[in-house]
Model the fold of this input.
Amino acid sequence: MSGGFFGFNSAFPERRNDSSSQSKPPFPGFQADHVDQAFGIGQGAEEDVAVYTWGQGLDDALRDAHDDFNHETFGVDPRGLGTDFQFAAPKQTAAPSKTSGKPRGPIASTQSRYKPKPVADPFAMSEDDFYSSRVTKSVPKKPVDTKAKPSKLSSAAGGSLWNKPNVAPSQLWGTQPTSVARPEAVAPPGQVAPQTFQRPVGHIKTLEEIEAEMAGIDLEPLTHQPQLPQQPRILSLEEIEREMMTTTPIPPMSQPPPPLPPQPILPPPSLPVQSLLSPPSRPDSTPTVPLPGSGYASGHALLDSIFPQLGATPRPDLPPAHLGPASEPPLPPQPSPEELARLDALRKRVAAKIESMSRYNHTMGSSDKDYITRMQLSQLVTDDPYTSDFYAQVFSAIKRSRLAAEQADEKTAVVQIAPGAALSVSAPTESRFGKMGSKTMQRLSTQVKRLVDSRAAHKKTMDSGRFDGYVFEGRLIFLATLKGALGRVSRSGIAAPRPVLAVPVGSKPEHRPTSALNQTSGVHRPALTRKQVMYALEEMYDLVLELEQLRRTQPSPESDEMKAWDEECQLKVEEIWRRLMVMEPLDVSTPHPFIALLNAVKGQRLMPRVLRHLPHSQALTLLTLLIATYPQLDVIAHAPPPPVADASLLNKMDRVERARREAETDCFLQCVVPGMDMLISTCNLGLVAGLLNICTQKMPNLKQVASTRPGVALFTALLSRAQSLIRVPPADPNNPQPIPGPDPAEVDHWQRTFAYFLHLILPHLPELFPASVAQKAAFGPGAYLLGGEGVGEKESLEMERREAEVWGLAAALAVNAPEEEQTNLVAALRDKILHTVQGARNPVTPPFKAEMRLRNVNMFLHGLGLDASMIE
Amino acid sequence: MEQVAAGTISEPLDLVKLSLGERVFIKLRGDRTLTGNLHAYDAHMNLVLSQVEENIHIVDVGEDGTAAPPRIERRGFEMLFIRGDSVILVSPLLE
Amino acid sequence: MLFFSFFKTLTDQVITVELKNDLCITGTLKSVDQFLNIRLDGITVEDPERHPHMMAVKNCFIRGSVVRYVRMGARSVDTTLLEDATRRGEFMVRVLKGLRVD
Done:
């Protein structure tokens, strides 16, 4: 398994062919031989073999040369472990078979997954790299110390990723279970050592042979390890020259030190264990992105945890890559204390880790890094960070304003690239560039600006006359021009997908309710379809968004632009007003188009934002229309049915339907009612009386309206507003000027209207209480449950809260009612009052609930100058 | 004005826009369906939904190769981002 | 850029990324890029028995394309704002295509 991990199929070719589990590799296209052909490399072998020529060759080479220390490198346990460790075992990782001779079991797909990688040079970072990897083909190969090479070259070469001997698999897997000289197979075909072809093609060492070999060499000294399992590699020019001068492999220690940055020998003390354990090389990582600590480290830890006995065995692993003499470990599997061995292993692993990481040092020059950063930055450049990064900007702004002043310092910096272009670098982004000094940022900014400018200019000359940017808020935005920073500049992109399906423009006028409505007023029409409502609302949202954007960019009051800006705002408001369709005749359709808009949750949510912008007179008109058409609202006409005692009595459809209606009501109460209250609180008494009059006239079924929460809220708001207007506040001693009392004519109007209203609603008053309704609706055990405390805590609390709303209405009625009517009120609610007070006094009732109920009743009784304590 | 009004319905995505803020039905690859409130989408059909119910339709195949009646696995998420490349269709969920 | 923008606001929040292979990784969102690649810290895996190889992984970088879902808390998202941002995105697209709105 670990073989697969290192990027090659560890199965022998013949086994692969006859093993059914491998006859269908997960990535057939990536079979070694296919890859071979596809990339046209490994030509040396292609005459007669389609199988793993490099593997064989290397195998051979290794044996001939210095594969004596394979066990050191790869940590082969002399006992020889099987290779059928299942990487992605469903429940428990299969123990590696200790019978090394036995044929390998099915190999997890990961094995072949990495196979394509070794092929030549998929990672050639540049042309140069690519050629260098090809060139090596002609160079007689010898195992060379990896380290001896300039890191730039070595890391660029694809092969180095895989055949790095210093980063032995043993580190990963503790004890390398496989005895097959698999690592050799990793070498890119193009780099096959010449020995490959000296060898009978068919001959592949058997597992036993190899193991025998390994067992035989098990005790070889450690010092030579690093060079031995070396793969043929891409050589630098110097190396090649050196190679040509000497025919025998040079022990690495005797080689001139490579022009590498000095490598730490011991782990920095701060190095977390995690990183110590993490694998030295990741077959699937790109050469530039070593990701320590992720992915495969777990494999080791897992193995350790599963096979503690392996952990106990001192591992003869780890090529001490460039370990200095000081840190030269005691030659391992001496019967040294276990702990010491482990520490050693750890240290070595760290060294190898550092070494493997440093392979990538200087892979990218600073200009490369700058280039990448420029690309990234250019992707983020916009004229206005609030357009492309609207959500994050506003979200963080809202968050900041919530966190208030103590965290006043800005987390978001808008890097002004140029007067016309800016980059938003908010907290998260900041961390991406966090390491860059502000100077660098500045420098990059100018570069990006130049980049953007030149592209814009280029675009302009290229297709002058064609649409290229657009004017938004007076500034030119080159959205399209920025798209291609990573490649082709194209006019379609994420922000501007090419329209593939072009529906003829203007073919669906029926979806546009607003355009037709106002001209054909007075005619009865069918109600708006849901789709029409949705179109209308989306158009409205767009308008509101534009208006809000416009308001944000208010010029200074003295400037000349002020007037133009003001006019523009006016126009938008008028447009919104028109599209609200408030001015449509009352009976143009049922529901009224405006109500149809409000029936959608989306419309309810929009309402407060619209109200904010409307002039007061229009808002009042809207309020009047809303009250006049109140019964048409879904939340009234299809109000949620009274709660039932036991939700389990409902089927699923019912429950879903109830939940939906409740949600609509909640939304209405949350979005529309506050605006309504606010408007009502600005009305004078005459207007309030007029509105209440509309209620009595236009609500044929007043009771139905009053038994809904929005209805209760509306009436309560009207009644309490009237009361606060009628009751003249006591004279303010600081303000000797007497506050004018309400106009007697208005008061009279109000009293008459109220009397009629009371007359209409009084008979139904007891039925408005949700608890009563629920109790009436309940039957059998349900009634019990409601009376008792069997209902869920949450539900019963909610019930009390809704009861309170109705008690609030009753109280508003009480304070408005003349004395003779007050008696009628109490009479009408007598049973309810008694029942509630009794319930509150019942010792079974939890105190908080009792308190709530008494408060509810007192709300009403106090309006009459009474108190619940007066009730016997 | 009218030009824009007409223009807004010329794109398939405009239909999705109508469902913004509303409950939608989503069909995904891998025999999954979702219902939830649509809060965001883009040209890739990346989506953000809230109050999501996911249904995975599973047909178990017995040892003899016969398919058991399909069953549905349900999961709920309060807020969910859906990567667009799994999305097959988005449709308004009408009452 | 909408979702890039969206995910930026989720940084340092705990999210659960469900991959297309059903692997669910919960962790703190550390960073995200335009491709919606995701870096998570302090990760835990749902059903670690099924994914033993993830046991010791503490942080990871997830290629955006392998993501199926990202689950997050409802409180960390401002849905109204998100809808507005979506509409604005749409608005931009339309303007770009030359359909002037005003």
